[in-house]
Amino acid sequence: MIDETEFVALFREHHNAVRRFIERRVSDREAAADLTMDCFEIAWRKRDPRDPFGLPWLYRTARNLIANEYRRRDREGTLWTHIEDHVRTLASEAEPAMAQRLVDAIRGLPEREREILWLTYWEQLSAAEVALVMEMNPGAVWTRLNRARARLRPLLESAVVHAEGVSDDRR
User: Fold this and answer.
1) Cβ atoms of residues 80 and 58 within 8 Å
2) For residue 107, what are the CA distances in angstroms to 28, 82, 132?
């Protein structure tokens, strides 16, 4: 078992990242704080030097806690509504119509592809780390990530063409 000093170091290193990971998926800050502490409580109980864990393990544990929270609240689909709101906020300043098309395209992806996109681009995890979080083979992560990109590419390319056309008209 890891000792208390090592655990405190783990907590200090990853607490903010885990809290942000959860806050982006749970709109209630108090619930996010509770889930963050639950995640570290589980880490403390399950600490084992033969099976070391880091941020990907904590993300997977957080993801499971979030799923349990949504089941408990019986609010299926709320996670993706929250993510869609986040994407709209980020993109709305530049091009509101593009933001809506992007949200629609992301909504149309299978759930696992949406989660892989989220972990890769918003959480900035490597494919190996995403594989740990999602309990998948890294090759499968790459395959699903490439599929998601392929589905989104035509939308993004048409938006660029549209944006270039608008700027050309303004000259």
Assistant:
1) no
2) 22, 12, 24
Question: Which pair of tokens denotes residue 123?
Answer: 């959480």
Domains by residue range for the chain, with CATH: 1-76 (1.10.1740), 95-171 (1.10.10.10)
Which among 134, 74, 76, 144 has a CA at the least distance from the CA of 109? Answer: 144
Neighbour-count burial for 38-65, b at 16+ CB within 10 Å, e otherwise: bbbebbeeebeeeeebebbbbbbbbbeb
Q: From CA 9, how far away is CA 15, in angstroms rounded?
A: 10
Please say whether the beta carbons of 33 and 47 come within 8 A: no
Which residues, including other chains, have CB under 8 Å from residue 32's CB and lie 6 or more apart? 19, 22, 23, 26
Residue 97 host element (H or E): helix 96-107
Phi, psi of 79 (to 5 degrees): -55, -50
pLDDT in tens, the chain (171 residues): 677 888 889 899 999 999 999 998 887 788 899 999 999 999 888 877 666 678 898 999 999 999 888 777 654 455 556 666 666 565 555 566 666 777 777 878 888 888 898 888 888 889 898 988 888 888 889 989 998 888 888 866 665 555 555 544 443
